[in-house]
Design a protein that fits this description.
320 residues, mainly beta, Jelly Rolls, seven-stranded antiparallel sheet, 21 strands, 39% strand, globular, Man6P_isomerase_Firm_short, Phosphohexomutase, PMI_typeI_cat, zinc
Length: 320
């Protein structure tokens, strides 16, 4: 079997806070003006990605993994996770502020939901002037202080905000209270989990006048009340893999592509490229594949030698 770079049909999600930038900026075929998320690679239950190209077109990612676990996932990933794809890749468009929320860690998620936890990283693709996001507490807090401010609708007074610009990266470890702010488009890389505890939603209502469910009690145990620093800084040398994040769940590198760049990897892990600027070609086994901004491509672990070429900014993600 000759494996090749895999693309998947985007799974588009309407959100009360969504907009149209997934179409205007990232070329997604959205169906509404409140499209908030494009799930690029997913094996979340009821949202499993379907291959969009080549020999495997029409097959689900789960079907491929079931048939070719070592070749798709990688020997090390398969040994660690079995036939589970451990990561979820998305693009998000926040026309409005997202809810203030928190995600549980592995232990709590396993106990409550039989799921992975949800550590995630954000890469800012686009940000309107003065766009901000919320990440963590300004100072060390406590359940008592947090609940007092939450009940008094003054929670923002004790939360840390960051003004953002394209290229900024934030690592949101589990337990970090956070919210993506209005006017921001991000690439998101996270554990395979859809567990979110929403604690405050700015009292907004949907088209039918309904508020969204809150999970205040569930969040209490999940929150990390310590002051944390979520922003990460990294090198941007051209035509090399600049490490951005290395954590137990994934490694993310930044590639500023301005030429042809040959790479060799092991069969330990799959590799994913997210194109966050420009366009590029991926040359594998004598074939060339072209991608533009907003593209996400999965290189099966069986592919070890390839070339990148073009003028682009890429996120390179794998499990180390």
């Amino acid at each position: 079997m000759l494996f090749y770079p895999l693309q998947f049909e985007p799974i588009l999600k309407e959100r009360i806070w969504g907009g149209t930038k997934l179409k205007t900026l990232l070329n997604k075929s959205i169906a509404s003006e409140i499209t908030g998320e494009s799930w690029e690679i997913s094996t979340v239950a009821n949202d499993v990605s379907v291959v969009a190209n080549g020999h495997f077109k029409g097959k689900t990612l789960n079907e491929l993994i079931d048939e070719y676990p070592n070749e798709i996932l990688g020997t090390k990933v398969y040994a660690q996770f079995g036939k589970q794809f451990p990561l979820l890749f998305k693009y998000l468009d926040a026309r409005q502020d997202l809810s203030i929320q928190v995600h549980p860690n592995d232990a709590l998620a396993q106990k409550r939901h039989n799921s992975f936890g949800k550590a995630e990283m954000w890469y800012v693709l686009q940000a309107d002037e003065n766009a901000r996001l919320i990440v963590g507490f300004k100072e060390k807090s406590s359940p008592e202080e947090y609940l007092t401010h939450l009940n008094n609708k003054t929670l923002l007074a004790i939360l840390d905000t960051k003004k953002v610009q394209p290229g900024d990266v934030f690592m949101l470890n589990t337990g970090t209270i956070h919210a993506l702010g209005a006017g921001i488009v991000i690439a998101e890389i996270q554990q395979t989990s859809d567990i979110t505890y929403r604690v405050y939603d700015f009292d907004r209502v949907d088209a039918n006048g309904n508020t969204r469910e809150l999970h205040v009690d569930l969040a209490l145990e999940a929150l990390n009340y310590e002051k944390t620093e979520a922003q990460r800084w990294y090198e941007k040398q051209e035509n090399v893999s600049n490490q951005v994040i290395q954590c137990p769940y994934f490694t993310t590198n930044f590639i500023k592509l301005n030429d042809t760049f040959s790479k060799t990897k092991t069969t330990d892990s799959f590799c994913v490229f997210m194109c966050v600027e420009g366009d590029f070609s991926l040359n594998v086994n004598g074939d060339s594949y072209r991608y533009g901004i907003g593209s996400t491509v999965l290189l099966p672990a069986a592919l070890t030698d390839f070339q990148l070429s073009g003028q682009a900014s890429l996120l390179e993600i794998y499990i180390s």
